[in-house]
Every structure is written in structure tokens, then in C-alpha cells.
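Recall that a protein's primary structure is simply its ordered list of amino acids. Everything else, from secondary elements to tertiary packing, is in principle encoded there. The following example makes that idea concrete.
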Amino acid sequence: MSIFAVGINHKTAPVSVREKVAFTPDNLTHALQEMVEQLACKEAAILSTCNRTELYFVQDKPLLEVQQRITGWLESYHNVPASMISPSLYWHHDQQAVNHMMRVACGLDSLILGEPQILGQMKQAYSQAKAAGSMQIIMERLFQRTFGVAKQVRTDTEIGASAVSVAFAAVNLAKHIFAKLEKSKVLLIGAGETIELVAKHLYNNNVGKITVANRTVARAEKMATEIGAEVITLAQIPEHIPDADIVISSTGSTLPIIGKGMVETALEQRRHRPIFMVDIAVPRDIEEQVGELEDVFLYTVDDLQNIIAENLENRRKAAAQAEKIVVTQTNDFMAWLRGLNTQDAVIAYRNQCLSKRDQLLVKAKLQLSQDKDPEAVIAELATKLTNNLMHAPTRALQSAAQGGELDKIIYLHDVFDLDKKDN
């Protein structure tokens, strides 16, 4: 019984290919059931995100056959030619598969090193597999161990402590300047992807109030609705700046939207309570001279990039520590798995021997009830039982000898204590 991890991700394929093999929540249960029924997977789970689609499963077929089956199934299930899928697929088997799953959960294989969202997505994949009935003892234990490793990495290393995106860095800076964001009021200028990410980070940090200013109000309304924000036009910015503790701007304007005079007026109305301003735009949205004002903390996109570069280096150092944790935990899991396989083999072998013993014992008792010579009955029982127990090991030794498999012969000698001298 082997564990497999098969996938396609941002490193191996562009989004045009990744989107063709993605699974939606609506079809995931059906896909898992097909993996179990049609592909004879003993257990299965599927992780599908914007950056990766991965299949985790337990299978007892040879690797080449597994590759053919899975590739063919992906081709037919998604109606995509194998020639498009195959070059982008990566295959991990047993220890490598376990190691890969743990690295994914820890964010060590993510587009943004150490990003935490992937762990939640892994937990969702686990829950969906449980609900579909495709999760049993091995995958259950593997997922639980994987979640434990991710938690240990977050606790024992600094991999998630530093901001490595412009949006995250901007919000982190705000948290350093304002001890409690819950009481802070924010003015966001623009409605593009970066501002949307900033808004989500602020919302997740329970910021007091968010106002979104944009040239087109309708474009900003969807984002504002999701985070409970107010929407204003760019022309209304001067009257709202005095109320803002934090101003973050990212538009496509070719000229500055906020000038020094506008901010000076706002500071007077605020009685010189400080304003934290982040200008992510290129060209600038906020005049450079605004940074000269005593009660303004102004950061540009270059300032954030310097912070991000330093934080990325910190994450790389933390990732090296995390890799060591993953290796240790992978080895521990594989030891458990080997123990499980050994235990199953011991139980099966013991049951086989006991079954044969009981069969021969029933026959011997019948012979004794028919007044057969007890010594002859006992001798026959001993001979037949001995021959039966000797059959499989003898055949294995003969096969190893004929094939010149010295390692197997040595192993069998060790298993059956053949070199031990009787006292």
C-alpha cells in the first residue's frame, strides 16, 4: 500500500492550464467517489486552489500503472488532452508524498513563501474527503499529522511573522503606528486589486471604519459592500481626510491626488493628530512634499519594497528551520506507517497459522474419536503442521537462491533465526 501526491501548480503550469484541471466544490464529491470506485484508490483527497490542484491517495498498484490511470482519468474527467496535462504534472510517492503534503500545508511550496491561507484550504480538502467517505486510517492520520506540523512551524519559527506583500506590509505598518486599529478610521483611494487586498487585511484586523474613494463609485461599491465601507468620489477626499487616521492610495492617476496644502488643512482640523499615509501608486498619488509635514508618516511603494525584501529574507531563514521540522515529522509518520504495515502482516500471518492449526486439530480429534493410534495421530499432526509452516519460507528461500537475490536470502536468514545455534 503506497501513498501518492500528484499535482499541478504555479511552478509547473500557467493559469490557462491550471484552470482546466481545477475542481469546484460542486464536483469534488463526485470526483473523489470516482477515484475510489473507478481508479481503485483505497483512500483519496483533492486540494484545488487558484495556484494548485493536487490529488492525494492510497493505492496498491505499481507506479507506472498509477501514472497511466490518473493521467487518463484527469484527461477524461476534465475533457482535456493528456498532452496538455502530462508535462505539468509532478508525482510524489510514499516518503516524498508525505514530505510534499507537509511542505504545502506549511506554505513552503506557495507562491508567497509562508502564506497561511493554504492551511485552511488543506483543512477544507480534508473535510470534503471525510464528507465524501474517501478518508480512512492512513489519510486520516496523515492529514492530522500535517496539520500538527503546520501548527508547529507557525509556533516554533517566524515564517508567518513578516509581511511579504505590499498590501500586508501597509497594514502591518499601520498596526505598528496605531496600537489598536479598532479605533482607527481609514481612507482608501482607488478600487484596484492592491486596494482590495488592503481593505480585506484591514477588515480582518477589525479596523474601526473604512471609506473608499474612487473615480467611479459603482466600481468601488462591490468591494465596499463586502467590508461594510462607505464610498465617496475623488472630489470628496478633501472633506474626508480630516477624519482619517490612515490614508492608503493606489490609483492610475498621472497626477497627484493629494497635495501638501490639502493635508496641512486636514492637520489643522485634526489639531495635529498624526496621519499615517501610504502611497502605493506609480506615478505618485500623494505629493512628495507631504512627507515634510511634522505630523505625517508618509511611506511610498519603494519604502514598502525595502521592508518586504528584508522580511522575505527573514522568512527564508525561518523556512530553513521549517524544512528541518518537516523532515523529522515525515520520518516519524513513515515509521508509523511501516509499523502499521508490519502489524497487519503479523496479524495476517498469525491468523493464517492459527487457522491451519485448527483445521489439523479438528482432523486429529476426529481420528482419535475413531480409536486411531494416538501416537500416529500426534505424529501426523506434527508433520502436517510443520510442513505447512515451512512451505512459504522454503519457497521464498528457493526463489531468492534461484534469482541470486543475496540480500533477500540474508533477510530471510535473519527473519527465521537460521544462523542461531541451538543450545
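The mean pLDDT is 89. Strands lie at 2-9, 43-48, 52-59, 90-93, 185-189, 209-213, 230-232, 246-249, 275-279, 296-300.
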